[in-house]
Specification:
This protein is an all-alpha fold. 62% of the residues lie in helices and 0% in strands. The chain folds into two domains: 2-92, Orthogonal Bundle (Arc Repressor Mutant, subunit A), CATH 1.10.10.60; 95-196, no CATH class. α2 (33-45) crosses α5 and α7 (105-119) crosses α8. The chain is flat.
Length: 196
């Protein structure tokens, strides 16, 4: 009797633990730029800047609210210029802003021009080593007064460069194979095999 009771208590505790695990999962909510701006205005006008009350009333975490306040100027700029559809809510960085984030902006612009002029139409793939070698030669030309060792041509830099300029790692593959001379016979044999 005692062992059955202990077993029931253990089962009940296990079920309770599983219920708690499921409660820990959170849902990810997505908000439009307009809604974010509206919430910031509500925070200022209705809740008098009290982030705790605002976040509880609107069911938005304080961390999210703080992030929106920090990015408010970007939201307003996007709304004014209408660069993105108002429904886009994730990264709010248009192409011009993305290109200006590199530490050595002039070098990256020259490297991008080189890619457009030489590599793009040749069908060659984007290769980190090729870009690093070209970037080193351009670095000496663009920044003659700086030490070449002051800039690390790392794979991380290369990945960010590719992302900033919207490049793709894809390359032209070989042209499709020619049709076999005996294609008609092969097709006929194929259908005959399944007709049996």
């Amino acid at each position: 009797m005692e062992s059955e009771r202990n077993t029931l208590i253990e089962i009940d505790q296990n079920q309770h633990q599983h219920q708690n695990i499921f409660k820990l999962k959170r849902t990810i909510k997505s908000y439009t730029i307009e809604r974010k701006i509206e919430v910031i205005e509500l925070l200022r006008n209705v809740y008098a800047g009290n982030k705790s009350k605002c976040s509880k009333a609107l069911d938005i975490s304080r961390a999210t609210l703080n992030e929106w306040i920090k990015d408010e100027s970007k939201f307003l700029e996007v709304r004014e210029r209408n660069d993105l559809a108002i429904r886009k809510t994730r990264k709010i960085v248009n192409q011009e802003l993305r290109k200006t984030r590199g530490k050595y902006q002039e070098l990256e612009e020259e490297l991008f021009r080189w890619w457009e002029d030489v590599i793009k139409d040749s069908g060659l793939s984007i290769d980190c080593d090729r870009f690093a070698a070209k970037a080193k030669s351009l670095f000496v030309q663009v920044y003659p007064d700086r030490d070449l060792n002051s800039f690390k041509f790392s794979k991380g830099w290369f990945a960010k460069f590719v992302r900033r300029f919207g490049l793709s790692y894809r390359s032209a593959t070989s042209v499709g194979q020619s049709i076999p001379v005996d294609a008609d016979i092969k097709i006929s044999n194929y259908f005959d095999y399944f007709d049996k």
